[in-house]
Amino acid sequence: MAYLNHQVGGTWTEPSLLDSLREVSKSGITRADVFSVGYFSDGTEILRHAKEEAKASPVESVRFIPCLNENEEFMKYLAGRVREAVSNS
To answer: Which is more confidently placed, 43 or 72?
Structure first.
């Protein structure tokens, strides 16, 4: 478990992604997958910072699993739900 923080306004939560990757590497883990479970979609500043932390970590391979907003069909579904809600209000 890690938290994707950015450097604007200080650290929100701990441990950071970099700290968590350092810790799991001590157990011999060389590959990790990262998914932002707390986000429906990620801001680019957080993703950019997370990728920088992953690159600085001792873990050899870090894969970022896309957030839900990466799926065009799901976004079309949500847009339809929004249109439906607006037309019914």
So the answer is: 72
